[in-house]
C-alpha cells in the first residue's frame, strides 16, 4: 500500500534490535485517515474470505480492527492482556513479546469466541509471529476457525510470516520491511 509505505519512509524510525518505531502514526499518536485507508485495503484483500468477526490484541490492533469491523458491520473482539476481575469463563494463552522481551498472558471471554465463529485477525505488526500464534491458539481452543490474518506492517527478516504462510494461513501485510540493517529502512 503506497500511502503507508510513503508514511513509513517519512516518519518511521529505526531502533536497535530490528525495531521499527512508528509511534507518530500507529503506536502512540494515531493517524485515523491512514488507519481507515489500511482498513479499506484489508477489506479488499480479504474480500474472498468468509468471516463473522474481527479479532485483535490490545492495544495497537484495536484501531485498524475496529475500522475493518465498521466497514463490514462486524463485531470486533480484542484479546486482553490482563484478566478483568469480572471475567470468570475465559480462554487463556501465553505470548512472548518481541519488543518487551517477556511473556504475557492474553485472554478472551468464552462468550465472545466460540464454535460458531470464523474470524479475521488484524494486528499492527508481524515479527516472529508470537502474537498471531497466541491468537490462533485461542481461536483453536474456542472451537472457532480462522479466515485469515492481516497486518499493517510485516518484517520479512523475522520468521512469523513464513511460518504462518507455511501453515496454509491466508496472510496479508500492507507494507513489508525487508531490512532494518544499519538503521536503514528498506521496504519491499
Ligand atoms: P510478534 O509477536 O509477531 O513477534 O510481534 C508482534 C507484536 O510485537 C506486535 O503486535 C507489536 O506490538 C510488536 N512489534 C514487533 N515488532 C515491532 C516493531 O518493529 N515495531 C513496533 N512498534 N512493534 C513491534
Structure report:
Xanthine binds at residues 20, 27, 155. It is a single chain. The protein is 29% helix and 33% strand. The protein has one domain: 3-Layer(aba) Sandwich (Rossmann fold), CATH 3.40.50. The model has no long low-confidence stretch (mean pLDDT 96). It has helices at residues 2-11, 32-45, 62-72, 130-142, 160-166; strands at 13-15, 19-21, 53-57, 76-79, 90-97, 102-109, 118-126, 145-155, 171-179, 186-187. The strands form three sheets. A six-stranded mixed sheet has the order 4-3-7-8-9-10, with helices on both faces. A two-stranded antiparallel ribbon has the order 1-2. Strands 5-6 form a two-stranded antiparallel ribbon. Guanosine-5'-monophosphate is lined by residues 19-22, 27, 60, 98-99, 123-132, 155, 160. Guanosine-5'-monophosphate binds next to strand 2, strand 7 and helix 4.
Query: Bound small molecules, which ones?
Result: guanosine-5'-monophosphate
Largest sheet: 6 strands, mixed
- Helical content class: 25-40%
Strand content: 25-35%
What is CATH's topology name?
Rossmann fold
- How far apart are the termini? 11 Å
Instruction: Name the average pLDDT.
Output: 96
Radius of gyration: 16 Å
Instruction: Provide the domain count.
Output: 1
N-to-C SSE series?
A: HEEHEHEEEEHEHEE
Shape assignment? globular
Strand arrangement in the largest pleated sheet: 4-3-7-8-9-10
User: Can you tell me the CATH class?
Assistant: Alpha Beta
Assigned CATH architecture? 3-Layer(aba) Sandwich
Structural class: alpha/beta
Q: How many beta-strand runs?
A: 10
Number of helices: 5
- Give the low-confidence spans: none
